[in-house]
Amino acid sequence: MDNIDYQRPASVDEAIRLAQQPGTAFIGGGTNLLDLMKGGVARPMRLLDVTRLPGREIAQLPDGGLRLGAGVPNSDAANHRLVRERYPLLARALLSGASAQLRNMATVGGNLMQRTRCSYFTDTGFGACNKREPGSGCAAIGGFNRMHAILGTSEACIATHPSDMCVALAALRASVRVRGAQGERTIPMTEFHRLPAARPELDTVLQPGELILSVDLPASRFAQRHAYLKLRDRASYAFALVSVAAALDERDGAVADAALALGGVAHKPWRVLAAEQALVGRPLSDASVADATRLLLDGARGFGHNDFKIELARRAVARALAQAHAGTA
User: Fold this and answer.
1) Which residue, among 248, 249, 244, has the nearest Cα to 228 in the 3D structure?
2) pLDDT tens per residue across span 214-226
3) Residue 133 belongs to some domain of the structure
4) What does the pLDDT look like over 92-115, one tens digit per residue?
């Protein structure tokens, strides 16, 4: 058994200072990290418990947006009045993830830091996994890859990001506020997670020791017409084969703005600005949806068992946009 040093810093500044030492990990609800530690995938030497730090509040921002503290439990975020009223797409995505018990423990910041559920990554019995052991190869490419990515892949990794919350946040143009030894910075949600390229062991653009403070949402124009569609093997407590976060701002019979992102298909939530722009200025129709879907799925590639995901995603996008348009989500 490994010896692990556990500390509970009294302030954000203390947490950041302690996190500069190698082998340190922050822990909030621990719903993902503890599983990885039990399986021998994650082996931190020090855990910094951040559950008592500031960051368990949901507050309005001066520009009409909303700030979700990193320590807010997923269940609290999903059921908060302002989230339900202004960002129902996010509330639906949160409620579609995991079980009620896990949502009570999991935090907004921890959800951002979820690691892939690729079985070749989570099972140390498989030696070839570049995310777990850089340079060892990717067993999923030639293995059973039904759950794996069809977009943004590399020869080093075809794993998918598992979060539902993050798909909605990407569509809603959220940003992530973080602080580290070099100070505070804000990262657009679409840039927070990385594609695998040659370094799939790096899930995010966070620097060592940086701590997530909050997720900030801009003022919403998508409260009325939205849909979160999650296609999975069973009706609950399962990760997405494909998920779609879709929302529309429609005026005078045409789309004035659109939000569109996919989950279950890439190493990060998948959003393509050109796909959203293809909907803008036009009535929602089969033609505009087809144009947006083509741009969203440009470059999609299956690896055998997951070839079906390309057509599944195409149909899911059309269905989600139709639901958003009708206001029936």
Assistant:
1) 244
2) 999 999 999 999 9
3) no
4) 999 999 889 999 999 999 999 999
State the DSSP string of 126-177.
---BTTTSTTS-BHHHHS--TTS-SSS-BTTB------SHHHHHHHTT-EEE
Using one digit for the tens of pLDDT, what is the confidence trace for 171-187?
999 999 999 999 999 99
DSSP letter string, 100-132: HHHHHH-BHHHHHTPPP--HHHH-TT---BTTT
- Give the contacts of 290 (CB within 8 A, at least 6 positions apart): none
Q: Domain count of the chain?
A: 1
Inter-CA distances, 289 with 42, 99, 119, 136, 266, Å: 42, 33, 34, 41, 21
* Residue 40 three-state SS: coil
Half-sphere exposure of 241 (CA within 13 A, CB side): 21
**What is the pLDDT averaged over residues 149-163?**
98
Is residue 40 in a domain?
no
Residue 188 burial (C-beta neighbours within 10 Å; 0-12, 13-18, 19+): exposed
Give the residue numbers spanning the domain of 250. Answer: 230-323
C-alpha distances (whole Å) from 122 to each of 40, 50, 69, 116 are 9, 25, 29, 8
Phi, psi angle pair for 179, to nearest 5° = -135, 140
Residue 307 domain-assigned (yes or no): yes
Distances from the Cα of 87 to the Cα of 60, 78, 261, angstroms: 13, 9, 15
pLDDT of residue 232 exceeding 90, the answer is: yes
Q: Is the pLDDT of residue 329 over 60?
A: no
Task: Output the 3-class SS for 175-231.
Answer: EEEEEECCEEEEEEHHHHECCCCCCCCCCECCCCCCEEEEEEECCCCCCCEEEEEEE
Asked, for residue 294, whether it belongs to a domain, the answer is yes
Residue 239, domain CATH: 3.30.390.50
